[in-house]
C-alpha cells in the first residue's frame, strides 16, 4: 500500500512508515494513493466479521504485513452489534470493547500494526491524557511484548472510574499521576518528543489519533453494519456519525469508496459545529471550543477534515451530498429521552447522531446511527437525565475494585526523563 502526504503529494510512504511516523512533512496527513473498489461486496458481506475485516484490510493494505489476518483477530476481539430501535432506525453499537468506546477498534488495530512493523526495535509509547485516550491506549497495548507504555495524567483531575480503567493494569503499562494540570502533562510529553537523544534511546512514539491504521480499522464496522441488516433493507441506507475530529466519518466514506452501498452519510455535531456551518455556507469559520454533554466531540478544528475533502476530490463526489446537523445540550437531552421512550438507553454522542439522522431520512430510507460509547461511560449524566441507574458492565465493575498502581511525579522534565530511561 502506498500513501501520500495531503500537503505535499511528492512525499510517498509505505503503510509501515505511515504507521510508525504518524504524520508527514509540515504535519501533513497521509492518504491512501489507491482505493480500488472491492470486487464482490455482496459475497464479502456473507463472511463473519473478523474474517471479512481481514479481507477488507488485506485488500487495502496489500502484502506488506504477512500475518495481517492474525492481527485483525487479535484487535477485533469483540463485536459491533446492530440493534433495532424502531421500524426505520438501527443503532450500531461500537462500545463493547475494553474501554467502552469505538476508539477500541482503531486503537487496538494500531497497536497490533505498530508491534508488527517495529519488529525488534524498542518502542515506548508516551501520551498525556485528560481521561479517555489514556484508557484506550493502555488497553490497546496491554501485554504486547517489547512495547512500554507511559501515560501521564493530572493527579486528582480525572474521574475515579476513568482512573481505575487504566491505572490498574500494570505489566507494560505505567501510569503517572502528575501533580499539575493536564496542560503541564502535555508540555512534558512535548518536551520528551523534542529530546532527540531520548527519542532514539527509547524509541518514542505517540500512537496518536491521526494514525492511518486507526481509520482503516474503522472501515470494517461499516461493512459489519450492512451485513447485519435484513437484505430487504440494504437499499437506501443513511448513516449518521457523531463527529468530533471526523476520523470516524472518514472511515465510513472510505468504506463507500471501496464499494459499500450507502445512500448518504450524515455529519452530526454538538455546539462545536464548524463543519455543519461550513456545509451550509461554504465558509470555514471555527468558533472557540465550548464544553458540552458530548465532550468527546468538543472539537472546533477537526484534524481529519482534510482527509474528507481529499476523498471527495479524488472520487469526484460533491460535499453537498453530505447530510448534516447539530444539537445543543438541551436538544441532546431531549434526544436521549426520545430514545429512552422507545426502550433504548443511549448516551449523549449517539443520541445526537440519532436525532440528526431523523432530520435527514426520507420515505423508504433505513437509518443507522453510530453509538460511539457505552451509556455507563457517561453514567452520571445518563442517570440524571433519564432518571435511571445504568449498571456498569461486568468488566468495568470488576476493575473498579482493583488497587491503583500509578506512580506520582512533580511536573519536572528531568524526573520524567530519568523515569523513562530507567526501563529502556
Ligand atoms: C472520539 C469520539 C467521537 C468523535 O469521533 P471522531 O472520529 O473524532 O469524529 C464521538 N463519540 C465518542 C464517544 C468519542 O469518544
List keywords for this structure.
424 residues; alpha/beta; Rossmann fold; 18 helices; globular
List the topology elements.
Blueprint: E1 2-5, E2 8-14, H1 15-21, E3 30-32, H2 41-44, H3 49-61, H4 68-75, E4 82-86, E5 89-93, H5 103-118, E6 123-128, H6 132-141, E7 147-154, H7 160-166, E8 173-178, H8 182-194, H9 196-202, E9 204-205, H10 212-228, E10 237-242, H11 247-257, E11 264-269, H12 274-281, H13 305-315, E12 323-326, H14 329-341, H15 348-358, E13 366-371, H16 379-386, H17 394-399, E14 407-409, H18 413-422
The structure holds pyridoxal-5'-phosphate.
Question: Can you walk me through this structure?
Answer:
This protein is of the alpha/beta class and 424 residues long. 42% of the residues lie in helices and 17% in strands. The protein contains 18 helices and 14 strands. The strands form 3 sheets. The protein has a 6-stranded mixed sheet, sandwiched between helices. Strands 9-6-7-8-14 form a 5-stranded parallel sheet, sandwiched between helices. The protein has a 3-stranded antiparallel sheet with strand order 2-1-3. The longest helix is centred in the middle third of the chain and has 17 residues, at 212-228. The chain binds pyridoxal-5'-phosphate (PLP).
Summarize the structure.
With 424 residues, the protein is of the alpha/beta class. The protein contains 18 helices and 14 strands. The longest helix has 17 residues, at 212-228.
Amino acid at each position: 500500500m502506498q500513501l501520500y502526504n495531503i500537503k505535499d503529494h511528492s512525499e510517498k510512504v509505505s503503510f509501515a512508515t505511515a504507521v510508525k511516523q504518524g504524520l508527514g512533512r509540515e504535519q501533513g496527513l497521509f492518504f491512501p494513493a489507491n482505493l480500488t473498489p472491492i470486487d464482490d461486496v455482496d459475497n464479502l458481506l456473507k463472511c463473519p466479521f473478523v474474517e471479512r475485516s481481514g479481507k477488507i484490510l488485506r485488500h487495502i493494505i496489500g502484502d506488506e504485513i504477512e500475518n495481517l489476518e492474525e492481527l485483525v483477530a487479535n484487535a477485533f476481539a469483540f463485536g459491533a452489534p446492530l440493534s433495532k430501535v424502531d421500524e426505520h432506525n438501527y443503532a450500531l453499537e461500537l462500545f463493547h470493547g475494553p474501554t467502552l468506546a469505538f476508539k477500541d477498534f482503531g486503537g487496538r488495530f494500531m497497536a497490533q500494526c505498530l508491534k508488527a512493523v517495529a519488529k525488534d526495535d524498542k518502542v515506548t509509547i508516551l501520551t498525556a491524557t485528560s481521561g479517555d485516550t489514556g484508557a484506550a491506549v493502555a488497553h490497546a497495548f496491554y501485554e504486547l511484548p517489547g512495547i512500554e507504555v507511559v501515560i501521564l495524567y493530572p493527579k486528582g483531575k480525572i474521574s475515579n472510574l476513568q482512573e481505575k480503567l487504566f491505572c490498574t493494569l500494570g505489566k507494560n503499562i505505567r501510569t503517572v499521576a502528575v501533580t499539575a494540570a493536564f496542560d503541564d502533562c502535555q508540555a512534558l510529553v512535548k518536551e520528551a518528543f523534542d529530546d532527540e537523544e531520548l527519542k532514539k534511546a527509547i524509541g518514542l512514539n505517540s500512537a496518536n489519533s491521526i494514525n492511518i491504521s486507526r481509520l482503516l480499522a474503522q472501515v470494517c464496522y461499516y461493512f459489519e453494519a450492512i451485513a447485519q441488516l435484513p437484505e430487504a433493507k440494504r437499499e437506501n441506507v443513511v448513516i449518521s456519525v457523531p463527529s468530533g475530529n471526523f476520523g470516524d466519518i472518514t472511515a465510513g466514506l472510505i468504506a463507500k469508496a471501496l464499494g459499500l452501498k450507502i445512500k448518504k452519510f450524515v455529519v452530526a455535531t454538538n455546539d462545536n459545529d464548524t463543519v455543519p456551518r461550513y456545509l451550509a455556507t461554504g465558509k470555514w469559520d471555527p468558533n472557540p471550543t465550548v464544553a458540552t454533554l458530548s465532550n468527546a466531540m468538543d472539537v472546533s478544528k477537526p484534524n481529519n477534515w482534510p482527509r474528507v475533502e481529499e476523498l471527495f476530490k479524488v472520487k469526484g463526489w460533491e460535499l453537498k451530498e453530505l447530510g448534516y446537523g447539530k444539537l445543543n445540550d438541551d436538544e441532546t437531552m431531549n434526544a436521549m429521552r426520545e430514545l429512552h421512550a422507545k426502550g433504548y438507553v443511549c448516551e449523549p454522542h449517539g443520541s445526537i447522531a440519532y436525532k440528526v439522522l431523523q432530520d435527514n431520512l426520507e420515505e423508504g430510507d433505513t437509518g443507522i446511527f453510530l453509538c460511539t460509547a457505552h451509556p455507563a461511560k457517561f453514567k452520571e449524566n445518563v442517570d440524571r437525565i433519564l432518571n435511571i441507574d445504568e449498571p456498569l458492565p461486568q468488566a468495568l465493575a470488576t476493575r473498579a475494585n482493583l488497587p491503583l498502581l500509578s506512580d506520582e511525579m512533580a511536573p519536572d522534565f528531568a524526573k520524567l526523563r530519568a523515569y523513562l530511561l530507567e526501563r529502556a
